[in-house]
Amino acid sequence: MAKVSVIVPGAGAGRRYGGKRRKILERLGGGGQPVFIRTLEAFVNREDVCQVQLVIAPDDLEEVRSRYGGNLGFMSVRIVPGGPTRSQSVRNALASVRDDAELVCVHDAVRPCVAQPWIDAVFAEAEKTGAAILAVPIHGTLKRTTDRRVIDGTLPRQAGQELWEAQTPQVFRRDILLAAYAAGGEATDDAALVEAAGHAVHVVPGDVRNVKITTPADLAFAAAVLPTLPKPKQRQPLHPFAEDQQW
């Protein structure tokens, strides 16, 4: 079993989400856990995970440490200040990846509905091939539009069969990911940097329930699907949640 260092980027501005607070601090189901706590819990109890790092926007560091520091300390989660871009945020965490980690997993802080069997599958594929991501095939008829949202073309049906929507976790052999980031560049996901470095990235079929929270509607969807997620063979106890613990 390869040891895995997990990086959880949560420093994005979330401009498309709107609202009065960051997406990662929103609560699932109103009175439930903050999104980022639920996301972290998917990884901290795994035997193959040797390290978890949460990347937070500098403006959020004080609030996260004061309100949730006890939880993060109990889960042995390291907080890393984020950068101006997603790629820079991941770079900041890569600088502290443990030496004994054979694989590095990057998973969005705002994907709280990732299930253990999906994590198992992408970890196994990355261990075998060196680079793997979860993704879901795109179905339906695809339209190309102008900047005024007027249809100016329809993609052939076979094109849709070749298109996949990337998800996370995205998992890579440590040396492959470090080399891809050392080459510089920016990308919206880690697989793009690894692809640009010339390494093949394998797709593991995911699930539409592994939603990335981008809008308030996504938050409601995530809360609704959480009870439907496939369970591991033996569920580990979750960490207790209490806001009043101090860092």
Protein architecture, described:
The chain is of the alpha/beta class and 247 residues long. The chain has a single domain, classed as Spore Coat Polysaccharide Biosynthesis Protein SpsA, Chain A (Alpha-Beta Complex), CATH 3.90.550.10. 32% of the residues lie in helices and 21% in strands. The chain contains 8 helices and 9 strands. A 7-stranded mixed sheet has the order 3-2-1-4-8-5-9, sandwiched between helices. Strands 6-7 form a two-stranded antiparallel sheet. Helix 1 (35-44) links the parallel strand 1 and strand 2 (49-56). Helix 6 crosses helix 7. The longest helix is centred in the first third of the chain and has 14 residues, at 61-74. It is globular. The relative contact order is 0.20.
* Class by alpha and beta content: alpha/beta
From the 3D coordinates, which CATH architecture would you assign? Alpha-Beta Complex
Low-confidence stretches: 235-247
- The figure for the number of domains is 1
Strand count, sense and barrel status of the largest sheet are: 7 strands, mixed
Tally of extended strands? 9
User: What is the helical fraction, as a range of percent?
Assistant: 25-40%
Find the CATH topology.
Spore Coat Polysaccharide Biosynthesis Protein SpsA, Chain A
**What is the assigned CATH homologous superfamily?**
Spore Coat Polysaccharide Biosynthesis Protein SpsA, Chain A
Per DSSP, the total helix count is 8
Rounded to an integer, what's the Rg over CA atoms? 18 Å
Secondary-structure element order, as H and E?
EHEHEHEHEEEHEHHEH
Q: What is the percentage of strand-forming residues?
A: 15-25%
Global morphology: globular
Name the strands of the widest sheet in spatial order. 3-2-1-4-8-5-9
The N- and C-terminal alpha carbons lie at a distance of 32 Å
Classified by CATH, the class is Alpha Beta
Mean pLDDT: 89
